[in-house]
Amino acid sequence: MNCRAATTGRLLAGALVLLLAACSSGPxxxxxxxxxxxxxxxxxxxxxxxxxxxxxxPLSVAVNAGVFTVAGSDGTVAAVQADTGxxxxxxSVDGRIVAGVGSDGRFAAVVTREGDLVVLDGGKPAWRKPIxxxxxxxxxxxxxxxxxxxVDRRVLAYDVLDGRQLWSLQRPGEALTLAQGGVVAAFxxxxxxxxxxxxxxxxxxxxSVRWEVPVASPRGANEVERLADLxxxxxxxxxxxxxxxxxxxxxxxxxxxxxxxxxxxxGGTEGVAGNEQVIVGADASDRLTAWRTAxxxxxxxxERLMYRSVSSPLAVGPTVVFVDGExxxxxxxxxxGEPVLRLSTDSSGAAAAPVASGNTLLVVTRxxxxxxxxxx
Length: 376
Hints:
By secondary structure, the protein is mainly beta. It has helices at 4-7, 13-24, and strands spanning 44-51, 62-64, 67-71, 76-81, 87-92, 97-103, 107-112, 116-121, 124-130, 140-142, 145-149, 155-159, 165-169, 184-187, 190-195, 198-202, 209-214, 230-237, 240-245, 249-254, 259-265, 273-274, 278-282, 288-292, 298-302, 314-316, 319-323, 328-333, 339-344, 355-357, 360-364, 369-375. It has a domain at 59-179: Lipocalin (Beta Barrel). The model is unreliable at 1-9 and 13-26 (pLDDT under 50).
């Protein structure tokens, strides 16, 4: 049982009670492994900082044409120039935000606690509409549409210009679902959506299912242990899309043909990152594993960040970047998993997976700090 999921509030109310009860009788999570000194073979520095307000939801930072679009729980949404930190626009929606941000560079979309989908056009309110389902996954803005994934696995499509609902797709699902960002992404002319442990390819114009493939085979004695929803972020490498199934597996799918390339059983709750050679992710104990992208064979493992509550990673050049629960940013080599650079933020931990635009890497913390770094 992964008790870390309970402490970060990843299950909806009914399931959360079950998971907390199970964890209360289990052993406490070990203390974070001390960080070993490193002689950094690469240099790096923090180039700018800003603030957005506390982030208490599974934030997704949108990256478009050199701009980061971010949001805070209090309703603030902002677009920030990646290389300088200059705020291009900043606004507040009427309500606290529980899901976001989706953006295509012009339109930005968030969902409020009251259940409204709010769309901004260049930072100015365009429209808002109640959607009738609980949402924790950032909307996807693509192809003049806004796609929303509900925790009940319902998929909704809206016209980005006027808010007209275009279609709705409801799939059968398990009784319990995660309060953690799920998978909704674009692949050529197909919408990719996580439906429990399955990845579905959907026609974005009609809302019909083109193909569906299981990434994991859930196992366990109860519904909590069998929970295996696909979680964001996903990694796209050409026609290949790789992802994590919550506490169950890591796998890669050919999204052009709709077939599973490989899947490896492993615990863990966060997304994966990598390149054409290796895919990297952390398990429930924060042990890092790299799988060969082509075959899924293990390339290396590392225990250097054990029990440090690391974020989803980001591959940057020859390195993979994690942010731990103390807000420390770790650059590790992709070929061996060795530490090559370590820098600090505000110590509150990551609110989102790190993202990059050009050579600028952004870390957003739970206290609302925007910390931009540039390796040299």
